[in-house]
Design a protein that fits this description.
Elements (H helix, E strand, L loop, with lengths): L3 E3 H8 L3 H9 L6 E2 L7 E4 H13 L3 H8 L12 E4 L2 E4 L2 E2 H6 L4 H10 L28 H15 L8 H22 L10 H8 L6 H13 L7 H11 L4 H12 L6 H16 L2 H10 L17 H13 L8 H10 L7 H11 L6 H24 L13
Antiparallel strand pairs: 1-3, 2-3, 4-5, 5-6
Helix pairs in contact: 6-18, 7-8, 7-12, 8-9, 8-18, 9-10, 10-15, 10-18, 11-12, 11-18, 12-18, 13-17, 15-17, 17-18
């Protein structure tokens, strides 16, 4: 057998579908090398395949594998968008840490995810078709994610390009959708609108922040850091919807509905509440201990994909420190150390977003807003990718009843 195998031969050798083979690559379990004549034709080392085959054979049988596949288990879908690496997400081959530290604008990173090309300057996205006055349609204290859900649905009803599946039309819809959703937050909160402003400017306006270049850069960085994270629950929901032929507005609505859960987007709100409680007392150890004593799992710690710690947390703390002196609480080191001592693990991106939102002077709901607005770029990238792949996402159930 040759030292290298092509994609089809490698998939047959491992007895998996080609999509599973590519997912092994995206998870870092297998190296994919460019072909000698055509870089788009990938090839795989026979020795790497043998290693993976031995590992697979050592696992339990098919039933156990199927049972764990949807629970942080085996990769299940092929993607060219984001690889989760020990140093954090890698968007189309570009580490997110590099993008944040180099000051890449959110709009440019969204275009990278959508098209594979990173613009040299911030793209100018079109304004939404119409400003949506949600103030009279929703109660004033509505959660920002619920405002986005309503805004996305209403914007879809007004967009004549909604059902067009051409690549150009879908990209136009993606840009309108993010701008329109964020602009709806501005309108709902009764703030001053910013015509033609960036998404970061719109987020500033929505929360009435005193505009500054440092805050603008920090918001951009947060949106970039959280833009995609391969097959999280909301992204999977968006891909399932896209696979049925649902339009982009419907796909993002499905993602936002999934995002509302306390184990996903809602975790940011729980982290923000924890930080408020700690800030009042200045005693992280006492607050965490009291929660543990009550049988509550403190939010914002640990991540199954980052056993050595979520690198996005430190990245977001760096950004928060750049906003200005004293923006990061003095008790942060104690919070991190106490979490480790209690076996909670390192803080994750939810905690990082909550800390950054606090540093920016946002109210507690600012963290989940940054998360939702930024992640829309990733949802739409996966929608576009699922369209190109063209198959219906329909997992099988393993019946265990009588």
């Amino acid at each position: 057998m040759p030292d290298f195998l092509g994609s089809q031969e490698a998939a047959r050798y491992l007895d998996v579908q080609p999509a599973t083979l590519y997912a092994y690559v995206s998870r870092g379990l297998l190296d994919s090398l460019p072909g000698p004549e055509d870089g788009r034709r990938r090839r795989y080392r026979k020795s790497d395949l043998d290693r993976l085959k031995r590992r697979s054979d050592a696992h339990a049988g098919e039933g156990a594998a199927a049972a764990s596949a949807l629970d942080w288990g085996a990769p299940s879908l092929e993607t060219e968008l984001t690889r989760v690496a020990p140093e954090g997400p890698v968007y189309r081959g570009v580490p997110v840490g590099d993008l944040v530290r180099e000051g890449a604008p959110f709009e440019a990173v969204a275009e990278l995810l959508w098209t594979g090309s990173l613009p040299a300057v911030r793209p100018r996205w079109p304004d939404a078709l119409d400003s949506l006055d949600l103030g009279v349609r929703m109660p004033a204290p509505a959660w920002p994610v619920d405002v986005l859900r309503v805004a996305v649905t209403l914007a879809g009803l007004e967009d004549p390009a909604r059902f067009s599946l051409s690549e150009d039309a879908e990209l136009l819809v993606a840009r309108r959708l993010i701008v329109g959703g964020t602009r709806a937050l501005v309108a709902h909160r009764g703030r001053v609108d910013v015509e033609g402003g960036s998404v970061a400017c719109l987020v500033e306006s929505a929360f009435g922040l005193v505009s500054s270049e440092a805050k603008h850069r920090a918001i951009d960085a947060a949106l970039v850091a959280i833009a995609d994270h391969e097959l999280n629950a909301s992204t999977f929901a968006a891909r399932v919807a896209a696979s049925t032929g649902a339009d982009s507005y419907a796909c993002v609505s499905a993602a936002l509905s999934t995002f509302t859960g306390g184990k996903h987007g809602g975790a940011c709100d729980r982290c923000a509440a924890l930080l408020v409680e700690i800030a009042r007392s200045g005693l992280p150890r006492s607050v965490l201990a009291a929660r543990m004593r009550r049988g509550e799992q403190p939010p914002g710690f640990g991540h199954p994909l980052y056993p050595e710690g979520d690198p996005r947390f430190r990245l977001l703390v760096e950004v928060a420190e750049g906003v200005g002196r004293g923006r990061v609480p003095a008790w942060l080191d104690e919070l991190v150390a106490t979490g480790a001592e209690m076996g909670l693990g390192e803080p994750n991106s939810d905690m990082g977003l909550a800390l950054l939102a606090r540093a920016l002077g946002m109210p507690p709901e600012g963290a989940v807003t940054l998360f939702a607005v930024g992640r829309m770029a990733g949802w739409l990238a996966h929608v576009h990718e699922q369209r190109r792949q063209g198959f219906l996402v329909r997992p099988r159930a393993r019946y265990v009843g009588a």
